[in-house]
Amino acid sequence: MVSFEMSDEQKMVQETVASFATDQIEPIMRECDESETVPGEVIAKGWELGLLGGCIPEEYEGFGEEISALTNQIALEELAWGDLSIALHLMAPSVLAISVLDQGTEEQKKQLLPLFCEEEYKAASCAVIEPYYNFCASALKTTAVRDGEEYVINGSKCLVPLAQESGNLLVFATTTPGMGFSGVDAFIVPGGAKGMNIGEREKNMGVKALSTYPVTFKDCRVPTAARLGGSSGCDFLRVLSRSRLGLSALAVGMSRRALEHSIDYATQRVAFGEPIGSRQAIAFMIAEMAIEVDAARLLAWEAAWRCDNGIEFEKEAALAKNYAADTAMMVCDRGVQIMGGHGYVRDNPVELWFRNARGFASFEGFVMV
Amino acid sequence: MIDFELSPRIKATKNMVHMFAEQAVRPVARQYDENEHEKPWDLLKMVQKVMGGGIAGALGSPEKKEKKEDEEPKEKKPKETNLAGAITVEEIFWGDAGIALAFPGPGLGGAAVQASGTPEQKEKFLARFAAEEPAWGAMAITEPEAGSDTANLKTSAVLDGDEWVINGEKIFVTSGKSALEDSEGFVVVWATIDKSAGRAGIKPFIVEHGTPGMQITKIEDKMGIRCSDTVSISFMDCRIPKENILGSAEVVDKTKTEGFKKVMATFDATRPLVAAMAIGVGQASLDFMRQKLTEEGVELRYGINPHRMTSLERDVMQMEADLKAARLLTWRALWMLDNGLRNDLQSSMAKAKAGLAVTRITQKAVELMGPLGYSRELLLEKWMRDSKINDIFEGTGQIQLLITARRLLGFSREQLK
Ligand SMILES: Cc1cc2nc3c(=O)[nH]c(=O)nc-3n(C[C@H](O)[C@H](O)[C@H](O)COP(=O)(O)OP(=O)(O)OC[C@H]3O[C@@H](n4cnc5c(N)ncnc54)[C@H](O)[C@@H]3O)c2cc1C
User: Fold this and answer.
1) Which uninterrupted H or E stretch holds B291?
2) Structure pTM?
3) Half-sphere exposure of residue B115, counting CA atoms within 13 Å on the CB side?
4) ipTM of this predicted complex?
């Protein structure tokens, strides 16, 4: 039966993460962006929330709570409300962990999942994106060719978050060319593997606090056992789709923050004798922003709900992700517009959200629910 | 628990209504578009027999509201009357918007009686919708000089002994002819009893069919929803019984404008239903487009990077997401209503989104389908004409944004005009 009411557990998750975001993340957002770093202690505190460990079953040393893409989305929205870079940094290991949990072999689960249930944050990451303007995940140029008991990986990746400090990377490569998504496999490549070269940290317009790197593979050999899902391989579209669910929630969280900020500003800033919000040109922008933020959230929730209920959700995830990404850009652009010149200067957070927002068009495989 | 699955009861209704829409409504859609001002009487009578005003009845959702006041919060029955109504509306409008709007039932006038009538008034005025013969209820607010600005209406009601005397002119009354000439229905007329009191002076009155002094003066020719009649009504010394006022006749005390407020609150229930109407037409257009694309061997790829998609794929995706977004916003507004939560903000958000989304979707669909889209052989062009009304009546898109913005910004109507 249709309902929009969160479960008690979801409400609790939301409250907990929201207060973490308010107290710990939001106050340092600007500092992190300027210095291009995320302080270790914030990550440590965020890790204590147990967002990732929570959904790992007890047999792999997790807390064994119910695994729910939707509940994870609720948490991600709140994190991104605080700051996108920090949210992405904190949740980067989820891509590897949840992929393994969802599609890994028993050995892969046993070997990898406990790493994410420890007290200390361990970076892990995912390499999907490639440095071509026409990049599409369904046509990866990076290849993995089987050679006896090994796969040989060749190609270049970019926008790999935390590549430098990651213990393991989940690297996506084409194994059967011309087969689109179904011709792609994922390989668990340990940091420092031979043949894998991590380049210099990338300089991006937004999410500056999150370190990302180009990574190249030259005859990088991994055992066949490193292939996600073992001999049967993985369902790449499903991996991407779960990531899209996560990205949608992040986009919604950031958009909501920008909206709230715009509302505050529009009621306080006076021009021509009245608050600017008392003019329709501004008020209508705000109304539309609110409508689209809610719409994007509902699309994201519905897609995640389908995922949780074992209903086909790949198409919905794509719709939700693109919708939320467009919404984020629209909302943050208007956020800047509503603040006029004050929105353009770096004293003001909207310019930061504006820069971050465009990123959603490119982020694939940055986070997972 | 967040859930997007319709209950088995709603699903069953949805399937039934869909079949009915497909088999009984769709096939005559074109005919009643081309022959404006004609009505599918057989169909309307059949609808009355089978559903007893049930479809449009959803617009008033009788049982639901009556209980609300002293009802205990914990009741076992699933609360989904309004959501169920919206699903029904969506399916019928998927069949045809013009014919669906012409269906017999209490309509907006009935909804107003339902929301703010006394038990006697409900008894007296609503019983007819369950009778053998079809009957219609209508609502007349709009005037030539007062559309969005309802507070500015000039129609007056003056108490003379035991009667109210109404004078003025109303335009764009949906089903006005059906209610007043074709059946034993009524129209709820908004009139001021004290011009100097502004909003507080405006009251709704029930005027029965056949009341002397009331006359239909014009039947509009329209761009779309042609099967539904839209009329002008003039009132010249039109006398109605004193007890036909909805709510109290009090003006002076501003806090005692409950009647007016209650009627306004009916829009919290009807706006999402207008959104559902829009969504039905939008869905019809998308279904048509998908079918044609499949027939022509065009495959839509969802998972790929949007900048690798064809422009057609991107457009279709955008349209689908927009429709879905509108539907989910609508469901949320109705779910809130069903659960006794204040939903005025959410219902305006849903109406604003749906009205705009469906006009864009249908216009784009006609464009994308080229000659097929523009041709009057097919219904797509009709859906584009039909759906445009959804961004206009029951409060234009702009008015919905105004309401939404006021709530978000915490501004009064004086602070945000
Ligand atoms: C087919 C049809 C059926 C209808 N059925 C009914 C019915 O059953 N009962 C009934 O009472 N009425 C009915 N209406 C009337 C309908 O509700 C009005 O047409 C509508 O409310 C708009 O009023 P208007 O046409 O006077 O436009 P106006 O109010 O003059 O508006 C013109 C334009 O200005 C914009 N505008 C107005 N005020 C503002 C503002 N403050 N800020 C920004 N923009 C603004 C509007 O959005 C619109 O774009 C019907 C209309 C049609 C066409």
Assistant:
1) helix B258-295
2) 0.92
3) 24
4) 0.90
